[in-house]
Structures are given as structure tokens and as C-alpha cells.
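Handout, page 2. Input:
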Amino acid sequence: MTSVLPRALLYTRAKSSTWWQVFPGVRYCGTGGKMSAGGGRSGRTLIGVCQMTSRSDKEDNFEVYSELIERATTRGAKLVFLPEGFDYLGGGIPQTLSMAETLDGQLMTRISALAKKHDVWLSLGGFHEKGSESDSSRVYNTHVMMNDQGAIVATYRKTHLFHVDIPGQVRLKETDWTIPGGEIVAPVPTPAGKVGLAICYDLRFPELCISLAQMGADILTFPSAFTQTTGMAHWEVLLRARAIENQCYVVAAAQTGAHSEKRRSYGHAMVVDPWGCVVACCHEGTDVCVAEVDLDYLHKVRREMPVWEHRRHDIYGHIELKT
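Output:
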């Protein structure tokens, strides 16, 4: 492999066949999700990233993501990412609360069987976990990592909760129905590398990402249900920024389209490499893209631009986790 820097410069001078385009005026380096199945070279693993439109029917949603998981594993994916709210997006707070389950409930049992059937790890990016007895009027938004034997190996409860209230336009306050999580979870070893768990709005807080990278994350993942307005403005630029500044792969499964008359998600699920190139992106509607995570390339990026060694902790200190 050539040096990272000349490789990137080569992309900027290439003809249009090297570039692929999703939005007008925006260029991307990479393959646009056209990764071949297989792989197998040292440090390389295929992952699947899903995009769907969850609604309040849990059974219909289950059928959709079951098919997406099967499509991804048929193409060789060893780890598949599902978006926030993959289980359901309710039609209001009472319905959202009434449909929540525990981590050992019926839905997780069925998903465990899917993982075993397809011999695949699953990032379940935003499960409505029933709240504690002391706060039964709210739920947790829980990112569940499940291994290929169907066992839950890690859970992260969303820490940053979205809140927007524009009089006469929109009001969305997650704390009305969601209990904020209280800790960062150590990156999870998977077949594709160590995965740092986050959810949607967490994307806007670089401190969380730096903490996960310092703990050894190779991949940062942001399963999301980004709103149409904020997604158009900030989705891609934030994902690429988090990849570049932390020199990690960034994986973002996404909700898309209209969930109800009042709620619509932006979509554009994607994978960004440690150089900031979008290497896979879903089309409109329900979709799954497959991309290769190349840990050898990740380490090469970090060697050739060692920003972690150049940080001036003597000036601005460290980001440290509370114990």
C-alpha cells in the first residue's frame, strides 16, 4: 500500500470514475458500498450497515431487519449494524412506554436466534429497554451488542438526550420518555475490531468519541434516527469529522423516511474510513450496504499522521472518565 497522504492526493486528481456522488456538489472517495463479498485478508472484515423506516408495528419491523441481516450476511458480513429505534418508533409517549421490553424479553430472545442462525454479530442500535421500578414512566434507549452465539456482550444507555423546542414549529424532548445513561462503555472486541458504542445525538459531543478512542476503539458507531432538517445540515459532516479527528472507522446505521405524520428521519446510513472518506452509503428507502473494515489501513493512517502523539495535554489537559 502506498503512503496515506499520496493516496488521498491521488483521489483529488482522479477522473470521475474514481468518485461517486450522493449529494450534488459533494465528492466522496471509496467504492460507494460496492465491496465484494469474501475478504479474509489479515485485519480485514466485512460489515453490514442497515437503513429502515421503523413504525409502531414491532412484527413488521422485525421482518424488515431480519431480511436486511440476511442480505448482509449473504454478502459476507460478520457484523451487522441496526439503527436507533430498530424495534419500533411509537406514535406517542404512552405507546412508546407500553411497548418497551426488558433485555431478557421476547424480542431479544428472537433476535438472539437470528444471530445464531446467521452466525453474525449484531449492533442493535437503540432498543427501548423498560425502565427501572423507580422510574417506570420512562425507558432507556439502549445500544445492545450481541455476539454470533446470540449472547449480549455489552449494553450502552444513551447519555446525551436530544432536546429541541422551537415555539410554533417543533418540540422534541427525549427526557420526557427516556432515562439518561450514566456511563461510557469500554469498546467491545468484535470480529471487525473494537467497537465504541454511542447513539444518535451522542455524535455531536466529541468528548465521548475521544474517550472511546483513548480506550482503544477502532470503530465508532452512531445508530441514529436523525431528523430530516438536522440531517441535511449536519449528518455527513459530523460523521466524517469524528472519523478524521479520532482516526477511527465511523459506522452509522440510520432510520429513513416518514414514521408518522409528525416524524421523519433523514437516512443516508454510511461508513466512513479513518481518512474521512465515505466508503459505503445506503440508497433511499430500506437498504443495507456492505463495507470492509481494514485495521491494517487504520493503523497506517495513525502511524503516518500521529495526531495522538501531538496532543498538547500540558496545555489543555486530558479528557478523563469518572470512576
